[in-house]
Predict the structure.
Amino acid sequence: RTAMSRGGRPGKRPWANHTDGMRASLTCRERRLNSRLAEYGCSPAKQSSRLATLLRAGNNGRPTPPQGRDCMKALLALGVLASLTAPALADTAPSRLDEVLQRGTLSVCTTGDYKPYTSLRADGSYEGIDIAMAESLAKSLNAKIQWVPTTWKTLMQDFLAQRCDIAVGGISVSLERQKKAFFSQSLGVDGKIPLVRCADVQRYQSVEQINQPQVRVIEPAGGTNEVFARTHLGKAQIRLHDNVTIFDELLAGKADVMITDASEARFQQKLKPGLCAVNPEKQMQYSEKAFLLP
């Protein structure tokens, strides 16, 4: 195929030079990534093939992360970097990573209402598993974190409007989100289960038991919890509520069931005595957690 030259005349595109440049870039980046893994105590020799797969597959690469928390953090951060730089391989325009490095700031969208992944403190700062990992990523780039508040209902809208470079905070990988953006490699497997008052555990064991006209289901607006409820619990009474005080609504008897991820249900039953996660090892639906990437 031909392409227009700078002078406006059709001519052959220098594919050979372009391909050689891509290969050189991949080789250079792989050396740097292996070097960073060594700093975390991971074996570059063992991980090189996985890193090569990640780099060449771009955002769709999903190599198995190495064992150990530090190695997982390293591969996650490097996987995010591979995604941020991927556009540079196909275009001469600056990549998102170039922009982050130039600004010295990594902007991160997060809801701040989903423990243990993201939580907004009273002083306006954030804490949580994903928060710590995002801070580690920014530190590796010598960049400051700029937190961008969002909600589950406006998450994709804010992200597609480029209000942030990445989004974190227990985000579930879903087909609808994958149609619009990319995800990092999986941070873990999760799935939907009921969270109920402990006295009602036996009453709400299955979708069939919950999907009844008299059952009051409560969910945060806009996320995958609401999607699951709308899809599978059409006969039940569904009410939307914020994801911070929603657990108090259950305890107060103002709602019967909340469908949420097993990870959140387990965490909240420790924080809120009287609430119990129903069959956390037998999720009603399979999902994965990951960072949202451009």
Confidence is low (pLDDT under 50) at residues 1-30, 36-68. Residues 15-39 form the longest helix (25 residues).
